[in-house]
Write a structure and sequence with these properties.
Elements (H helix, E strand, L loop, with lengths): L3 H15 L6 E5 L3 H14 L3 E7 L7 H12 L4 E5 L1 H8 L5 H27 L5 E3 L4 H7 L29 E3 L7 H10 L4 H4 L22 H18 L8 E15 L2 E14 L7 E2 L4 H14 L3 E6 L13
Parallel strand pairs: 1-2, 1-4, 2-3, 4-5, 7-9
Antiparallel strand pairs: 6-7, 7-8
Helix pairs in contact: 1-2, 1-7, 2-7, 4-5, 9-10
The chain binds xanthosine-5'-monophosphate.
């Protein structure tokens, strides 16, 4: 048996053997399951020679920064620096409409912040950080480099799509990837042993470029981000209240950059439309759109239009992947 308690103890031994007493280790936390479990494990092994950074890129969900920082600090006692770089990201993204350009800018800004975080540690401790923790999973490994034969393998190249596009070059960081032999369900099990809250371990995946891929076109248009956060929060909360969150691979709202006519109260309105998307999937490679009950949809739609200023129309995305992708960009 591949017991998670044994895996944890073995990994801790390996990490302690690898990281010298003078070495410092850095980790970028995304707020997702994988980086959180990886960091928690490394923290258990080497304590506060681990230095985590969480970057608020201005493209996060409603109260995301507060929520994940609370988990990191109160539940997991991780040493985390929170960098609020939203102004910087959003000013770089202003007027940019091409999806790939948006991703590139976000990746580049992230590296710049990560780089300066690493340099600040170098100044503080008089030497460069030696290691970088990444929450790479086994499926990421096989996707990049199929293993010869049946056994699990160690060799791989870093997957490009889901990674933030490279690392600070002059840092020459060595990688610690404590989850690279594990599947997602095993990571969740390991997380449980490490006392990561179960609700956190069950969170839906969230893309690195955040809400930028859920606002077609310029992310800084009007109050798109603010509207999207409110709508998304109502939708997700309704899904949780209905007890169906765990059946769904990913659910989210999309801001539609189009204004349509509505009538609210006895007023005509000319406001934005939003779309709701929810899919089931095994791995995100293919996906099916999720069948909600009509009553659920009716309630959510009413609630959104009644409580989010600037929205007078709610649409449901009923496409699977393929032909669509999960995200809108
Ligand atoms: P798509 O939209 O390609 O998404 O069907 C498949 C899965 O990948 C996530 N996704 C991303 N994750 N950076 C990420 O870290 C990205 O640029 C990115 N694009 C899509 C998406 O949320 C879904 O889980």
């Amino acid at each position: 048996g591949w017991k998670m308690q044994d895996v944890m103890e073995e990994e801790i031994k390996v990490i302690r053997g690898m990281v010298g007493p003078q070495d410092h280790v850095i980790c970028a936390l995304s707020g997702g399951v994988d980086s959180t479990v990886a960091a928690t494990l490394v923290h258990k092994a080497i304590g506060d020679r681990l230095h985590c950074v969480f970057v608020d890129n201005g493209l996060l969900r409603y109260k995301e920064q507060e929520r994940v920082m609370e988990t990191f600090e109160k539940d997991l006692h991780l040493p985390v620096t929170c960098v609020d770089a939203s102004v910087q990201f959003l000013s770089e993204l202003k007027g940019v409409t091409d999806p790939e350009k948006k991703r590139k800018i976000i990746g580049k800004e992230f590296i710049a912040i990560f780089d300066s975080f690493a340099h600040s540690l170098q100044q503080k401790y008089g030497r460069k950080p030696t290691y970088l923790v990444q929450g790479t999973l086994y499926p990421d490994v096989i996707e990049s480099c199929p293993p010869p034969g049946s056994g699990r393998t160690h060799s791989h190249t870093i997957k490009s799509h889901h990674n933030v596009g490279g690392l600070p070059k002059d840092m020459k960081l060595k990688l610690i990837e404590p989850l690279k032999l594990l599947f997602k369900d095993e990571v969740r099990e390991l997380g449980k042993i490490l006392d990561v809250p179960v609700t956190f371990l069950k969170r839906h995946p969230f893309p690195g470029p955040g809400l930028a891929v859920r606002i077609p076109g310029d992310v800084t248009q009007g109050n798109a981000l603010d509207i999207l956060r409110q709508v998304d929060e109502i939708f997700i909360q309704a899904i949780k209240d209905a007890g169906i969150y765990d059946e769904i691979w990913q659910a989210f709202a999309v801001f539609l950059p189009v204004k349509t006519t509505g009538v609210q109260g006895d007023q005509r309105t000319h406001s934005n439309a939003v779309a709701l998307r929810a899919v089931t999937s095994q791995d995100g490679m293919t996906a099916d759109w999720y069948y909600f009950e009509h009553k659920f949809l009716d309630n959510v739609s009413r609630k959104i239009c009644n409580s989010v200023r600037g929205v007078n129309r709610v649409c449901l995305d009923i496409t699977s992947k393929p032909p669509s992708t999960i995200e809108w960009e």
